[in-house]
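LAB NOTEBOOK - FOLDING QUEUE
OPERATOR: T.R.
BATCH SIZE: 2
PURPOSE: Compare the predicted structure-token outputs for two unrelated chains run back to back under identical settings.
PRIORITY: normal
REVIEWER: second-year student, initials M.K.

ITEM 1
FIELD SEQUENCE / FIELD STRUCTURE:
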Amino acid sequence: MPSGRQWANVLHARYAGGASTPGSTEVSALDAKLARFWTGTAYTSGTAWLGQCHSNVTLIDITYYILNGVAPPIVINHAAAGVITTGTSLPSEVAHVMTVRTLVRGRRNRGRIYLPCANSSAIDAAGNLTSAIAVSTLAQWNGLVADLVANNWELGVASYGTSWNLNPTDHHLAKIHSTWTPYFTPYSTNSMDLKPDVQRRRK
């Protein structure tokens, strides 16, 4: 970020419907396409997000964790930056958010992707992201999802099987620890509004 702090998102991808475990070759194939959401060639009517960012917003690396309990993380370095050199970047804690949904209802089955601060040129007179950029960002994600099929990858939402909830019957609002069998739900659709959000830890 322009502030020098790092931004990060956690995405979940499943290989071959969970029927086999990917190795470094399969992860490299995933990375080549996943990075395209942030930088590089557009998918049809899509636009890579760093195309909306000032050059002081950069992509450093993507770290992959194969969730088999034993594989070490795979770090793939990138040297990409926003393409806009005029105007100014929005504050580092500002992010526009894309919501990822599945065909299953409930908070466990949807997620958010925080897009790093856009350039001032991407913002309209009311202080919101322009609708054209929102549409092209959603299209870029959907192009990525379709492109991954050829490599046996699919994006989705992982539910890790544990959470803490407030007990509504306890006037002290004690937390209840609930568990379930972890599962993965494939991506179905996405959406994003035009309003900026704030992540304080990104300052």
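ITEM 2
FIELD SEQUENCE / FIELD STRUCTURE:
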Amino acid sequence: MQNIIMSSLLALTLGAVGCSKGTPTSCDDIVEHTASFMPDELKEQVLKDKPKAVAKCEKLSPEAKKCAAEASSVDDLMKCPR
């Protein structure tokens, strides 16, 4: 399960932005946002490899980025297109 969540997180690159207003728009922000609702251990791993996650995010479709940016849970994130 943790591997599935990790790969989804890295693939979708998720971020609780430095700004609480609006939806994250940059891949850096999306990664931070999505990491914010991950368990601590997984969050640390994702943020440790943040450049890799950001690079994967940049290859996603606009729809997948929007979905990840609007996700508020791992369950929401798992429903996003890849």
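REVIEWER COMMENT (ITEM 2): The chain has one domain: 2-18+25-78.
FOLLOW-UP: none requested
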